[in-house]
Design a protein that fits this description.
This protein is of the alpha/beta class and 456 residues long. The protein has two domains: 24-79 and 322-453, Aspartate Aminotransferase, domain 1, CATH 3.90.1150; 84-320, 3-Layer(aba) Sandwich (Aspartate Aminotransferase, domain 2). It has 15 helices and 14 strands. Helix 6 (136-150) packs parallel to helix 7 (166-176). The longest helix is centred in the first third of the chain and has 21 residues, at 103-123. Bound molecules: pyridoxal-5'-phosphate (PLP).
Length: 456
């Protein structure tokens, strides 16, 4: 089983780097698990950094605080040591501004352009088609707003799906309040959009279709190549949010007829706060920010050089490790089957087989409340998520679970476990050992449950 620390030339020399990588924490701010809370709090003292270094490792392990199993890799991933190593020089001695003409600047420029090539290679694009920006959210905003404003003279109709990330849906809805017309396509009970329905929605005034490649909550994989063909045949631009699929599923912007593609560094063992938008050569976009010539005037502002270098390296590593998806899938199946075998009244959310992301488990455990489940798992050192990571602070069921038709009470018991390349069989066994008694205890307290019959 591959571990993040594998292949490292000399682990013992990297203590400083390791501590830096780990001290950041691996959770998103909306998470209830310990890793998320660690990144939420601002730790300035050396002491607190050191203690997080021992707790939060790229490999899930047993430390003083007990076993820690990180199964929230769709929220964010731990940064690969090799990414941190590639970035180090650009956070210390190589600090030039890539726009400067002197040597310092030229070194930074060369490194940024190398990284641009590494990102482009992973999606079959050319380097000139890659615009660096702060992450998936900004990429989605720029793609949709940029095209809506640049093509306003051609039409005002936009198409998307009901299970997009909020960074797509909210932008679309905002445009709909400001003179654009929006069609939000439904999905089936597995979270899949129908190509025929996309076709039926296209009108003469349609300017943009935005469909995500893989869903962040239930892992459904959309028929992107078919929709791309349809969009191209109809002269409609096609944007794809590939934040969850990058590095895990093969992507070719050429073969899939994609005009714009959003990607993010922190979902592929790269740094947070860096991402890119692929914009096919010839596609016109109106910038959202003004004030400089960087990134071909499309995204002005001094580049996040270290972040870009780290993202490039993460893309290179992802390309190298694409074959590893199969090992993750086997562990995922063990986890999913193990949950269904050990706990009664479990509904699997999302498709099975090759239409599901290889690292995604999403189940609804009836008669249990998702937030309580997360807190109980967290107390056992298991980091999970209920519905979307970005909305788990909210008591409303996620829009994705609503869109696949789950009743509220079942949606509320949803649990998402997302594996990473650092996940081991021992991690899976640990979850399968801890989860059933937690469910049993929570059900025993639930007025809705006939608990005597609920476990098997
Ligand atoms: C599908 C999808 N799109 C966009 C984003 C936002 O990306 P970022 O965190 O880089 O802004 C996420 C993050 O969870 C996501 O899962």
């Amino acid at each position: 089983m591959y571990k993040l620390s594998d292949n490292h030339p000399d682990q013992s020399k990297q203590t400083g780097v390791v501590r830096q990588a780990n001290s950041v924490g691996v959770g998103q701010t909306a998470e209830v698990h310990q890793a998320g809370r660690a990144s939420h709090a601002s730790h300035t003292s050396q002491a607190s950094h050191t203690s997080h270094a021992s707790q939060i490792g790229p490999a899930n392990h047993t430390g003083a605080a007990g076993r820690r199993v990180y199964l929230d890799n769709s929220a964010t991933t731990p940064q690969d040591y090799r990414v941190t190593e590639a970035m180090m020089a650009f956070m210390t001695e190589t600090y030039g501004n890539p726009s400067s003409v002197h040597q310092f600047g030229r070194v930074a420029r060369t490194a940024v352009e190398k990284a641009r090539g590494q990102v482009a290679d992973l999606i079959g694009a050319t380097p000139e088609e890659i615009v660096f920006l702060s992450g998936g959210t900004e990429a989605n905003n720029l793609a949709i707003q940029g095209v809506a404003h640049a093509r306003a003279n051609k039409g005002h109709h936009l198409i998307t799906t009901a299970i997009e990330h909020h960074a797509v849906l909210d932008v679309m809805e905002d445009l709909a309040k400001n003179g654009y017309e929006l069609t939000v396509l439904p999905v089936d009970s597995e979270g899949l959009v129908s190509v025929a329905e996309v076709q039926a929605a296209i009108r003469p005034d349609t300017i943009l279709i935005s469909v995500m490649h893989a869903n962040n909550e239930i892992g459904s994989i959309q028929p992107i190549a078919e929709i791309g063909t349809l969009a191209r045949e109809n002269g409609v631009l096609f944007h794809v949010d590939a934040v969850q699929s990058l590095g895990k599923l093969p992507i070719s912007v050429i073969d899939m007829n994609i005009d714009m593609l959003s990607v993010s560094g922190h979902k592929i063992y790269g740094p947070k706060g860096i991402g890119a938008l692929y914009i096919r050569k010839g596609v016109k976009i109106k910038p959202m920010t003004l004030g400089g010539g960087q990134e071909r005037n499309i995204r002005p502002g001094t580049e996040n050089v270290a972040g870009i270098i780290g993202f490039g390296e993460a893309c290179r590593l992802a390309a190298e490790g694409m074959g590893g998806a199969f090992a993750v899938e086997l562990l995922r199946d063990k986890l999913l089957n193990g949950i269904v075998e050990r706990i009664s009244d479990v509904v699997v959310n999302g498709p099975l087989g090759d239409k599901r992301m290889p690292n995604n488990v999403n189940v609804s455990i009836k008669f249990v409340e998702g937030e309580s489940l997360l807190l109980s798992l967290d107390m056992q050192g298991i980091a999970a998520s209920s519905g979307s990571a970005c909305t788990s602070g909210s008591l409303d069921p996620s829009h994705v679970l609503m869109a696949i038709g789950l009743p509220h009470e079942i949606a509320h018991g949803s649990l998402r476990l997302t594996l990473g390349k650092q996940t081991t069989e021992e991690d899976v066994d640990y979850v399968l050992e801890k989860l059933p008694p937690i469910v049993e205890r929570l059900r025993a307290m639930s007025p809705l449950c006939d608990c005597a019959a609920s476990q098997h």
